[in-house]
Design brief:
homodimer; 183 residues; mainly alpha; Arc Repressor Mutant, subunit A; 3-stranded antiparallel β-sheet; 5% strand; DNA-binding
DNA sequence: ACGAACTTTCAGACATTTCTGAAAGTTTAG
DNA sequence: CTAAACTTTCAGAAATGTCTGAAAGTTCGT
């Protein structure tokens, strides 16, 4: 299988970028190709389209499955497995974020929680614990906020996003009301 | 210089994590150590505390400076350079996000924009362009939203975060009103 | 039970990234 | 100008990550 020149530059670019997002170059390319291809592809098609070995495709697919990003389907009377990207672009972004959170943020939070349980032994550990607490709080805030966003429907998200600059206005009104009450 | 056992596990963990966030293990360790240490450190102190070479520290500092995460200071009568982490934890997170956006999202947006300018040559390119458009729109939305968040003060952010589940309620009310108007 | 059509695994080749340490560069004091 | 006290650079060593392709494994129809 060959790819058109235009699609190729997309696929290659995603290969480079993908490697910054937690998977390697060929996995990025495979995923990009699956996303822009309407009909499902076989492992051999992926291998020939990207000029990589059959074995590499097999491992890449496994990786993408662990990220819950691809789906396997079958065609009656055909033994081959056909792969396609799962869900909408928004679903994909959601999945990648959640996966990254599980792999990167959650372990950090757990390390921080353990370290914060122990009593500081000296001056320097007091300061260190304060900084760890800051980081812990920030990560928890971001995590719960992200969970909240994931619960929203795509339409609600669109509304929220379009709100744009409105958010800060809304907040400043809210805060003024709040501080007035206190006085 | 030695680090206490507790601080060491923090530093090492951040080394591992840091490598997933765009810089390598030792750079992550250096940064973690600077964050939890109140007084500025010299390059030699960093090297001995982390058991890495002096040259490596020099390159790491350069990297951290390119991320705008460390500051150099001097002590009168002392030739050495003293390094410390810049700003609050929130500032750090902001900086890292912005830096990552510049390095990862912006180039992708530019590639996508170029590809979307050209007319599709066939059926398959039409579909491909639709997916590229989806990704483009999503990235733009996220980018502008992130820019908006950065403009908020830490306090406003706190309010917004604490709003939590409130956001979806607020939005659903807003949308009901909106759809009523349409009827 | 056998063979055809497929997929997965994994040892070793290859590629990339990171690290060291010696040498070169810079700055300041005298 | 020179020496001392520092920092930076960079070639090559070490470590890590990726890819290939042959062999082993799986599944299905007969």
């Amino acid at each position: 299988m060959e790819i058109s020149e235009k699609n190729q530059s997309f696929v290659y670019h995603f290969g480079e970028m993908g490697s910054k997002w937690g998977f390697n170059r060929t996995v990025g390319q495979m995923y990009a190709l699956l996303v822009i291809t309407e009909n499902p592809l076989t492992a051999n098609e992926l291998a020939s389209a990207l000029s990589i070995s059959r074995g590499n495709v097999s491992m890449g697919i496994k990786e993408l499955q662990s990220w819950q990003l691809v789906q396997v389907s079958h065609i009656p009377g055909d033994r081959k497995e056909y792969y396609r990207a799962i869900g909408s672009v928004w679903d994909m972004a959601n999945t990648v974020f959640e996966e990254r959170r599980k792999r990167e943020v959650d372990p950090t939070l757990s390390v921080l929680r353990n370290l914060l349980l122990e009593a500081p032994q000296d001056e320097s550990e007091v300061y260190a614990q304060q900084r760890m607490q800051d980081i812990h709080d920030l990560l928890e805030m971001v995590t719960s906020w992200a969970a909240e966003l994931q619960r929203l429907s795509p339409e609600q998200l669109g509304t929220l996003m379009k709100l744009g600059a409105g958010v800060s206005k809304m907040l400043s009104v809210k805060q003024q009301l709040f501080s007035n009450k206190k006085d």
